[in-house]
Write a structure and sequence with these properties.
By secondary structure, this protein is mainly α. Helices cover 51% and strands 0% of the residues.
Length: 177
């Protein structure tokens, strides 16, 4: 009776994202993907703001079943595909190489919804996963408190209309109106 309960080979599914059925390793890979999209530096990056949690919540709660399936399958097969094609796990790549791989897949115009499987992977699902992740990453980052207060300060009531104004390149502008 004790032996079956000692099986540690199965990874636990994260309960917060019940529709996606992803594991902690998948979440770590997603963290690397969002950090590739918006790396840290002078300003905080996506990983520092936990954007990966927003991406998973949006995918779990807002995508339809077909898109959730594409997202999940793309996430599950992405690292295996990258490892097979580029010889290294995406999570272990240096930033510039990870960006190159990401851009190559996202911008590949030969990958279409009716593309055949290549090397045993559905590249359309991987491309959809990366596109969805990019969209939700940007949506999350641009609406964070950090971005709205420190990077591009949001003003609830603008200071009024100024018909003429000299442009100062060092001035922070409000992109939200």
């Amino acid at each position: 009776m004790v032996i079956p309960s000692c099986d540690f080979s199965k990874e636990n599914i994260l309960a917060a994202y019940e529709k996606l059925q992803i594991t902690e390793d998948h979440k770590k890979l997603l963290t690397k993907v969002v950090a590739t999209i918006l790396p840290g530096g002078e300003i905080r990056g996506a990983e520092e703001l936990n954007v990966q949690d927003f991406v998973l919540v949006m995918a779990n709660d807002c995508l339809n079943e077909e898109n959730q399936s594409d997202f999940t399958n793309g996430l599950k097969h992405f690292d295996k595909y990258v490892q097979k094609k580029y010889g290294n796990s995406f999570g272990k790549m240096e930033q510039h190489k990870a960006e190159e791989v990401f851009n190559t897949i996202v911008n590949d115009e030969e990958i279409t919804p009716d593309s055949p499987k290549k090397d045993g992977y559905n590249l359309n699902e991987i491309k959809n996963f990366l596109g969805t992740t990019k969209r939700f990453t940007l949506q999350s980052y641009l609406s964070t408190e950090y971005f709205m207060t420190e990077v591009m300060p949001y003003k609830m009531i603008p200071g009024g209309f100024k018909g003429e104004k000299l442009i100062d390149p060092s001035e922070k502008i409000n992109i939200n109106g």
